[in-house]
Write a structure and sequence with these properties.
By secondary structure, the protein is an alpha/beta fold. The protein folds into four domains: 262 residues, 2-enoyl-CoA Hydratase, Chain A, domain 1, CATH 3.90.226; 179 residues, NAD(P)-binding Rossmann-like Domain (Rossmann fold, 3-Layer(aba) Sandwich), CATH 3.40.50; 122 residues, N-(1-d-carboxylethyl)-l-norvaline Dehydrogenase, domain 2 (Orthogonal Bundle); 98 residues, N-(1-d-carboxylethyl)-l-norvaline Dehydrogenase, domain 2 (Orthogonal Bundle). The protein has an eight-stranded mixed sheet, sandwiched between helices. A six-stranded mixed sheet has the order 1-2-3-4-6-9, with helices on both faces. The structure holds (S)-3-Hydroxyhexanoyl-CoA. (S)-3-Hydroxyhexanoyl-CoA (3H9) binds next to strand 5 and helix 3.
Length: 706
């Protein structure tokens, strides 16, 4: 079957795009659409046209794999213009997701019919782009400037019902939900026939009443999104393009859009964001796991521990409709935990995200228990108890007694050896780590930690489950801190040392905040609680870590300043406030410690702090990769962007290193290693890749083809 086929029904031609998996607008599709349109323009037997799609969705956008390669004509704007300029009505039949260039094609059509469960969107901004085939010009004309700003600057998916209320659709039909689209196509054909007398209604010729869209209006909008768009290049270009739409006729607006689109396309952010897009889709590919690998059914989940973590983890499953039994040892703790969960849902309700009935339905999926035996019918049991091996040992020995055969037993540990945890059961193949990030109901990252004995079907099940509960699940091997926290330790080391060697905490934090991190590392330590690192160091023994870097932090904890939770840490906090304020007392502690250690304080520049922090992340990332504890460099990028707030527009630390060039990275690491050999042992993988003139991306590609 051709990528764009034609069926004639009476005097209506139905063009069907068939380019699995998502009908992306590859060269063949653009060419096919244009050729068919050109032929139909002069075909007197056809008086109206329907644009439909085969498979699981309407066109989901331009073909991202073609970006960065020379464009093969026809361009998408040419195709969309050709559709809009057709002398006979053209109707789009939309189901699944009409995204990006796909929605632009639909906007080029004169009318649109949608399935009720369809979604539309212009998500280009998430790829560092703007809708470049007229989307910024046509969408405001049809949906209004406010709605266009909302949709294009956020890139979010919009339900057909909402889009219908904005005037995007001319009719909705019943949900398709993976079934047949024949009723949708029938409705589109009927509308096409109905519109023959009226003829085309080009979106581009619709007028925008721009009296209220003055500079102040756009300035107000910019301010309203400033926090979410900080550091990103594309959102501002999107706003300027929509501003152009509100002031200029289509042809001139299209010119403005093209210039802004090219500025985005050539900005490094777009390459980084496209890298993230594909990286997130790679994480599910696990060597040795195929479609044929059996999966276990997860119909009921048990959670041990109703603290913040346990409750948050439980919410993920309940939100996906999976009932949860949550175990605590004390009635009081159980009640407290369930109250926190209810409170979270009620806050969502207040923000209009859930109805009372939905809150009640979700709470009904929770069962609280004080007895391990109540977990005996669970298909997956996750423990989220205190981080101590003896406690984990007790929990897993007990689970081994009560869990049914075939149940998956998971630990949410952040650091502990899961091989050892598994050894406390008689079924180590059923054991793995499911490391959620706090707050567990919000953070997208899930590290799926495979032990030396985890069975393939257990791993495959959990990889699928991650997607089902809306997480991005990255598989890691067992090592101290797995991927994310192992790298975080090196990053924290750099910032702790920078402070004792001469910078103030706020200088270190500002450098990394300005780089794009949501907060600096020292603010983050205050937030997480300084006592965690303190206890960890106490258990390690002074000979096993860099005391110079951390003694000042230990002093702070010993002053009773454990961080935000007690209103004082590295920073001061006003009563009830989460805003860190520089502390004169702490600066004295730091200066005193520097003097005690005989350090002559000298400031590093913000650039130096950022560079050292990145080198620390990359060097550790490369060790993790070289040891096979991560499958891909891009998996590491996904971990850092989704679990630690690394700015996605920089593509993750490994992509960042590729952009620097691994030869440059190696030279810098070697210099650091000469000065501080203990801290900066160069990762052998960086030495090897740099010697071969290769990048981490090349390493990933080579491994994928093995
Ligand atoms: C654009 O349109 C620019 C224009 O404005 C201007 C031009 C001048 N291209 O996500 P999934 C692949 S920018 C190529 O796992 P789901 C994907 O890599 C584009 N490939 O499925 C994966 O491949 P594989 C604006 C694409 O059901 C497979 O399809 N559009 C594209 O969870 C399945 O994907 C977007 O940004 C693409 N456009 O979600 C939409 N899209 O199996 C991007 C997907 O080999 N796409 N693939 O790993 C999505 O958001 C989701 O894929 C979608 C389906 C919601 C459609």
């Amino acid at each position: 079957m051709s990528v764009v086929s034609k069926e004639i029904r009476g005097n209506v031609a139905i063009l069907t795009v068939n380019n699995p998996p998502v009908n992306a607008l590859s060269h063949a599709v653009r060419d096919g659409l244009l050729n068919q349109m050109q032929a139909l323009a002069t075909d007197d037997t056809v008086q109206a046209i329907v644009v439909a799609c085969a498979g699981r969705t309407f066109i989901a956008g331009a073909d991202i794999t073609e970006f960065g390669k020379p464009m093969q004509a026809p361009s998408l704007p040419t195709v969309v213009d050709a559709i809009e300029n057709m002398p006979k009505p053209v109707v789009a039949a939309i189901f699944g997701t009409a995204l990006g260039g796909g929605l632009e094609v639909a906007l080029g059509c004169h009318y649109r019919v949608g399935a009720e469960d369809a979604k539309i969107g212009l998500p280009e901004v998430k790829l560092g782009l703007l809708p470049g085939a007229g989307g910024t010009q046509r969408f405001p004309r049809i949906a209004g400037v406010e709605n266009a700003l909302d949709a294009i600057v956020s890139g979010r998916h919009i339900s057909a019902k909402q889009a219908n209320s904005w005037g995007v659709f001319d009719g909705l039909v019943d949900a398709v939900a993976g079934g047949s689209t024949s009723a949708l196509v029938d409705a589109a054909v009927a509308l096409a026939i109905e519109k023959i007398p009226a003829g085309p209604r080009p979106t581009g010729q619709m007028e925008i009443d721009n009296s209220k869209y003055d500079e102040a209006f756009f300035a107000g909008f910019r301010k309203s999104v400033a926090r979410q768009t900080r550091g990103y290049f594309a959102p501002e270009q999107c706003i300027q393009a929509i501003e152009a739409a509100s002031r200029l006729p289509l042809a001139e607006g299209m010119e403005a859009e093209r210039k802004l689109f090219m500025a985005c396309m050539t900005n490094p952010q777009s390459r980084a964001l496209q890298h993230m897009f594909f990286a997130e889709r790679q994480v599910g590919r696990i060597p040795g796991i195929t479609k044929e690998t059996p999966r276990r059914t997860i119909a009921k989940v048990g959670i041990i521990g109703a603290g913040t973590m346990g409750g948050g983890i439980a919410m993920n499953f309940v939100n996906a409709g999976i009932p949860v039994t949550i175990l605590e040892l004390q009635e009081e703790a159980l009640e407290r935990g369930l109250k926190v969960v209810r409170g979270n849902y009620e806050r969502s309700m207040k923000r209009g995200k859930l109805t009372q009935a939905q809150v009640d339905d979700r709470m009904a999926l929770f069962t609280g228990t004080l007895e391990y035996e109540a977990l005996s019918d669970c298909d997956l049991i996750i423990e989220a108890v205190f981080e101590k091996m003896e406690i984990k040992q007790q929990v897993f020995s007990k689970l081994d007694e009560v869990a049914k055969e075939g149940a998956i037993l998971a630990s949410n540990t952040s650091y502990l050896d899961i091989d050892e945890i598994a050894s406390y059961t008689n079924r180590p193949g059923d054991v793995l780590g499911l490391h959620f990030f706090s707050p567990a109901n919000v953070m997208r990252l899930l590290e799926i930690v495979r032990t030396s004995k985890t069975a393939d079907d257990v791993l495959a099940t959990c990889v699928g489950l991650a997607k089902q509960i809306g997480k991005v699940g990255v598989v890691a091997g067992v090592c101290h801190g797995f991927i994310g926290n192992r790298m975080l330790a090196r990053y924290g080391h750099v910032s702790a040392l920078a402070v004792i060697e001469g910078n103030t905490p706020q200088e270190v934090d500002a450098a990394l905040f300005d780089f794009g991190m949501p907060m600096g590392p020292l603010t983050m330590s205050d937030m997480a609680g300084l006592d965690i690192g303190y206890m960890n160091r106490q258990s390690m023994g002074r000979e096993n870590y860099d005391t110079t870097a951390y003694d000042w932090q230990d002093k702070i904890v010993e002053l009773g300043r454990k961080g935000l939770k007690v209103g004082a840490g590295i920073y001061d906090y006003d009563e009830g406030s989460r805003v860190p304020k520089p502390s004169a007392e702490i600066q004295q502690v730091i200066d005193g410690e520097s003097a005690r250690l005989g350090i002559t304080r000298a400031k590093k520049t913000a650039e130096e702090i950022v560079e050292l922090s990145m080198l620390a992340l990359v060097n550790e990332g490369a060790k993790i990769l070289g040891e096979g504890k991560a499958y891909r460099a891009s998996d590491i990028d996904v971990v850092y962007a989704n679990g630690y707030g690394f700015p996605p527009y920089r593509g993750g630390p490994m992509h960042y290193a590729d952009i620097m060039g691994l030869d440059v990275v190696l030279a810098k690491l070697q210099a650091l290693s000469t000065a501080k050999p203990d801290m900066w042992q160069v990762a052998p993988l960086i030495e090897k890749l740099a010697a071969d003139g290769k990048s981490f991306a090349a390493f990933d590609r080579e491994n994928a083809s093995k």
